[in-house]
Amino acid sequence: MTATQESHHELSVTRHIAAPPDKVWDVMTNHIEQWWCPKPWRAEFETLERRVGGASHCTMYGPDGEVHPHPGLVLAWEEGRRFALTDAIVGDLEPAGPFMIGIWEIEAEDGGTRYTATARHWTKDAQAQHMEMGFEQGWGACADQLASLSQK
């Protein structure tokens, strides 16, 4: 299911995962490269400092040789609950051309876990661009990959 919230230029994907929150959190954070981008793409996290203000740097590799680096900053890290990243700040607090803030969160629900991934964009145009890039399909595939790994 995808929802939009106009005031934040927000897109989100949510899933109920039939696994306890501690298992989902473990997969989300300790096996992030296995679910982070839709297959056949793959992700490599060179850096993910698990603290507010920490560096984040992920490179995504496509099946046809595409290479997309994603440097950023950790905005929130609440162990066992949520984390948030942005591409608006990179390196040593250098401003970058911001596209979004990503928020990944979980909570216990109905004997399992409610997973929600949210992208908040600075502008309506950036939100529309993200939709055109395949937000629903891409982030939905990632949610399904996370669920599959968590339910093993």
Automatic annotation (TrEMBL):
**Mind telling me what this protein is named?**
SRPBCC domain-containing protein
Where in the numbering of this chain does the Activator of Hsp90 ATPase homologue 1/2-like C-terminal domain appear? 18-149
Q: Which family does it belong to?
A: Belongs to the AHA1 family.
Q: Which SUPFAM superfamilies match?
A: Bet v1-like
Q: Where are the transmembrane segments?
A: none
Which domain of life does the protein's organism represent? Answer: Bacteria
